């Protein structure tokens, strides 16, 4: 019997959930990075070329989401091993939230706000 098996299994499930989330963020970043193709196609479908159409922001935001996803995997791996050592330790330890998790959450919220404004502006430029 493995000591603290349920705790280790929960730690591994949490790690895998973080990895799945990071892969989703990276996939969304790749989709967003390719959003400019949709915008250029939509612009060519209209009879007039919109003056306010900018595609560089979606490329930079998509690349930054790819980077955030990679950082999420690195952070989740570190958290997994830290929790593994805490489970194996004989004494008790404090469980606390890290500043990195809060910072990444804030970064994702800021990216979401920017993306909302960006898409609204691009739709207005195509209208």
From TrEMBL:
Protein name in the entry: DUF202 domain-containing protein
InterPro entries the UniProt entry points to: DUF202, IM_YidH-like
Topology versus the membrane: Multi-pass membrane protein
All residue ranges annotated as the DUF202 domain in the record: 7-86
Location, primary (coarse class): membrane
Taxonomic path: Bacteria, Pseudomonadati, Pseudomonadota, Gammaproteobacteria, Lysobacterales
Transmembrane segments: 15-32, 60-81, 101-120
One term under GO cellular component: plasma membrane
Keyword Transmembrane helix among record annotations: yes
UniProt superkingdom: Bacteria
PANTHER family assigned to the protein according to its UniProt record, in alphabetical order: DUF202 DOMAIN-CONTAINING PROTEIN, FGR18P
Keywords, alphabetical: Cell membrane, Membrane, Transmembrane, Transmembrane helix
Subcellular locations according to the entry: Cell membrane
Species annotation: Dyella solisilvae
Zinc-finger in keyword set: no
């Amino acid at each position: 019997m493995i000591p603290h098996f349920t705790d280790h299994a929960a730690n591994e499930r949490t790690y895998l959930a973080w990895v799945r989330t990071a892969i989703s963020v990276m996939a969304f970043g790749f989709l967003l990075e390719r959003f400019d193709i949709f915008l250029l196609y939509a612009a060519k479908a209209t009879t007039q070329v919109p003056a306010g159409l900018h595609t560089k922001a979606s490329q930079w935001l998509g690349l930054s989401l790819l980077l955030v996803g990679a950082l999420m995997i690195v952070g989740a791996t570190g958290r997994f091993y830290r929790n593994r050592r805490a489970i194996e330790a004989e004494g008790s330890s404090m469980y606390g939230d890290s500043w990195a998790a809060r910072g990444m959450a804030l970064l994702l919220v800021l990216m979401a706000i920017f993306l909302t404004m960006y898409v609204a502006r691009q739709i207005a430029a195509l209208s």
